[in-house]
Structures are given as C-alpha cells and as structure tokens.
Amino acid sequence: ILWSFAPHDIAIILRLMGSMPFQVVACAGSYVQPNIPDVTVTHLLFDNGVRAHIHVSWLHPFKEQRLVVIGSRKMASFDDVAKQLVLYDQRVDLREAEPIPVKGNGDEVPFSSDEPLRLECQAFLSAIETRRPPLTDGTSGLRVLKVLQAAQRSLVMNGEPVALPMEAFA
C-alpha cells in the first residue's frame, strides 16, 4: 500500500515544503494477510519543525484523498474526490500558555477543474518546446523514491526512525 498510494502524497508534500525531511517514521497494519500491510501511517519531519503525516489504506469503505495544511493563522483542506478547496479561518491561540481553539467558517476557494494528467502532459510538452526544466522532473521523482525507501526501512524496523541525509532542494 505504501508504494501504491503514498508516492503522490509525498510528491505534494515535498513540493509544498521545498525541502527534504530529515527523518521518516512509518508503521503499518496487516489485517488481510500476514506481513502484507493494508494500512500505513508515515510521518515526515522537517528541519523547520513542520511535520507531515500520510495515512494510506485500501481497507477503508470509502474513497478519500484529502490534503490538510495547518498554518499559524488559517487552515486549508483540499478534497481531491469532491474537487473542493476550502480555506478555514481557524487557528489555536495561546492565552497564558493555554491553547484556545478559534474556530471560524470555511470559504471555498475556486480553482481550475482541468484534468491533472492533461495539465501535466501540456507542461511536459511546453518544457520540451521551451527547453525549460519541467516542474516535475527526474530529480523530484528521485526525492520521492528516497522518502519511500526510508519509509520502507522504517516499516521493516517496526517503526524506528530513519534519518535522511540533507541535500540541496532546487
């Protein structure tokens, strides 16, 4: 399940972060067949304190592909199944060292509903025509593979953290 469902999530997180995680921790559950994970939870830890969590499962009774980004002032949620992006005026304030949730309404953010694969193909053709590097290139694919390999090592080691060497991220 990790290698089937998580690569896209990892690619998005790496693109948003603009850097590689320094550590990866992954755990799995094997419910249908022993030693064949049906569910994995992968944690990516970044130098700036950001943590990303990826949960993938082929056992869920519903299809859900959701990206949630929690910022210091707002939160965003992208639902890939419903094709909906919502920005929430929601945060946590600290008052006398006590966290106070501030819940606000969500506002839907319009975005292009063009087919992602078509856009990716157009971007690839444009990169060839203009001789500019594509947004998603072999280097970005290699970075995703490095994170997947670290997650796989962590799974094999029963959830032990796996360090990734720091590298430049262009």
UniProtKB/TrEMBL annotation:
<protein>
    <recommendedName>
        <fullName>GFO/IDH/MocA-like oxidoreductase domain-containing protein</fullName>
    </recommendedName>
</protein>
<feature type="domain" description="GFO/IDH/MocA-like oxidoreductase">
    <location>
        <begin position="2"/>
        <end position="75"/>
    </location>
</feature>
<dbReference type="Pfam" id="PF22725">
    <property type="entry name" value="GFO_IDH_MocA_C3"/>
</dbReference>
<dbReference type="InterPro" id="IPR051450">
    <property type="entry name" value="Gfo/Idh/MocA_Oxidoreductases"/>
</dbReference>
<dbReference type="InterPro" id="IPR055170">
    <property type="entry name" value="GFO_IDH_MocA-like_dom"/>
</dbReference>
